[in-house]
Amino acid sequence: MELKVLDRLRWVKRFLAHTPASGQVKADLLAKATDPKQSRWNEGDSFAEARNAHYTNTPAELSKALEGDYNFLEGDVWLEGIARRIPGLDRFREPIMAHEPNNVTGLTLKEWLKVGVASGKGLKLDIKQSAALPKVVEAVKDAKVPQERLIINADMEFGPGIPHDLKFRIFDKISDFKTEVDEMVEVRKALPKATIAVGLYTGPKPAGTVYAPSQIYGAIAIAQQLGGPITFPLRADFVTKELVNVLKEHGTVSVWNDPKTYLPDDLDEAERNLRAMGVDGMIDLREMERPQPVAREVDENGWQPPEPETRANDSKPPPSPWAHPL
Prior knowledge:
Blueprint: H1 2-16, H2 23-33, E1 52-53, H3 59-67, E2 72-79, E3 95-97, H4 109-119, E4 122-127, H5 133-142, E5 150-158, H6 166-175, H7 181-190, E6 195-201, H8 213-226, E7 230-235, H9 241-247, E8 252-256, H10 267-277, E9 283-284
Parallel strand pairs: 1-2, 2-4, 4-5, 5-6, 6-7, 7-8, 8-9
Antiparallel strand pairs: 2-3
Helix pairs in contact: 2-3, 2-4
C-alpha cells in the first residue's frame, strides 16, 4: 500500500513538473542518432517516400525507432499539466512528448528535437494541445529544424465519430485539444516552409463510414486560409478514391490507421491500393497500437510506468463508397 502511494506521488510530481532525461540517456540517444548508418531524409524527397516511426515520445520508443529503418520520426506534444492556457504562467510550462495527457515518462520537446535534428530524419510533431503551439514554434526555431522536412499536425476540424455533446465540449475547453485556425495562421507566419497537416479529429464509427462533404469542405477552407505546403491526413478506413481526388487539388493526401479498426492482413498490399487511389503523401499503417520497448524504463527511484497496452484487429476493412459526391 505504501509503495502504491509513493508511486502515485511520483506520478503527480512528474505530471506537474516534468523530469528531464538523464545525461546518460540523452548521450545514448545522440550516439544512435549520429550513427552514419542511420536512414536519413534527403533534401527534395517526397513525403510519399517517408517511413514513419509513429511512437517516439519516450527514450525507449525513440531509441527503438533509431534502430529501425525509418527516415521520419513522429512525436506528440502537450504542455506539462495539460490545462489550457494559463495567462502569466504558461512561460513556466515545458512542452513534453506524450501521446496521452497522463503520460509522464516522455522526453521534453527540446530533448526530442535535439535528437531528431541530429538524426537527419524528417520530423512530424502531432499537436495534442494547442496551448503548446507558441513554445513549439520557439523550440523548432531554437533547434534549427529544417522546415522542408518538418510536418506540424493538428486536428483543426471535427470528422466522423465526434460527439458534439456537453461532455466533449467541456473536454475541448479544458484541454485546448482542437486547434483554431488563427492559432495555426501564426504558425504559418513563423514557419512558412513547414508542411501543415490539417487533421480531422475522428472517433469510433461503424464499418462503411466516410467523411462527410461538410467536413472535407471545412478542411479545404482551412488549407486555403493557411497557404503554403499542406497535407491532409486521413484515416485509412474512411478513405475513398473520390475523396482523394477532391483533396489533391489543395495539397497532398496522407493516410494513417487505427489498428483497432483497420488492420489488413497485408500492409504492403494495402499501401499499394492506397497509392492506386491517388494518395501521394505519407502512408503510416501501423501493425499494433504501440510498439513494445526492448525493456521497461526505470527511473532513479526504481519507479516503472505501466506496461503499454497492445491491441490488434485482423479484420479486413469494408468498402467505403463516397456517399455524398462533392
